[in-house]
Amino acid sequence: MSSKPDFVHGSVWMRPPRTRGGQPTLGREQIVRAAIELLDADGATGLSMRRLGSHLGAGATSLYWHVSNKDELLELALDEGLGEVYVPEPGDAPWRISVSVFANSTRATLLRHPWMIGLLGIKPTLGPNAMRMGDRLVALLTTAGFTGFAMAHVSSLIHAHAIGAATIQAAIAAGLGQGNAPVSEVLKDIEPYLEKIAPEHPHYDQWRRENPLTGFSPQQLWDDGFAFGLERILDGLEHWLAAGQPLTQAPRPATDWA
After folding, report:
1. Consecutive H or E run containing 103
2. Mean pLDDT over all residues of the chain?
3. What is the C-alpha separation between 67 and 76, in angstroms, rounded?
4. What dihedral do alpha carbons 53, 57, 59, 60 form, nearest 10°?
5. CB 15: neighbour CB atoms within 10 A?
6. Considering the chain, what percentage of its residues have pLDDT values greater than 70?
7. What mean pLDDT comes out for the span 19-27?
8. 3-state secondary structure (DSSP) of residue 186
9. Which domains does the chain have, with CATH numbers?
10. How many C-beta neighbours within 10 Å does residue 131 have?
């Protein structure tokens, strides 16, 4: 039995390219785009090799020539989605603007394809688009003045904000969508409950009354909240850079990352 972890060893990117002849007319790019169509419509649970074949009007032979199973297909689809994330070139704009563009592009991509959220950290991101994105982000942050492991921490911080915001928004949107009720109706429905429990939560109740949601669209609230958080993160990073960027220690050696 191999001692290599399946997370990496089983990745489609670690498998040598197929070299046998007789490649079917149906290309891998076409298969991946069709898979993304199904994923956007029904999520990862709605994707199967059989359903994909039916969607393409193709037999199993054409699909399995390119991918061995659904897991490999999901890896390919994830990398294709990551190709939509835009990372500005260093020097195109001040670093704060460039990082903001990257963060907003990441969030927007995940909201267009919410199935990607559940694959991040589960599937290896070793494909060409993921590596291109990572390489350009390293160049951007390094040019901005972040070095060593501090650069990696900054990258993780920006990713965490974008992924976290997209995760919560997508989950709430999915929950509301299942009920098929407009947000305004949902808020109206919970108003009696909030009134009932108001005496038990006076601070929240006072804030709620002083800041009614009437007149705000959910999308505006999500966008404003994301922008507020991102700006505060960038404020902190800018202050840290201006203060002289203290040395950061490398992670302590470990024999087992688990």
Report:
1. helix 95-112
2. 87
3. 9
4. -10
5. 12
6. 84
7. 62
8. helix
9. 25-68 (1.10.10.60), 95-180+215-242 (1.10.357.10)
10. 14
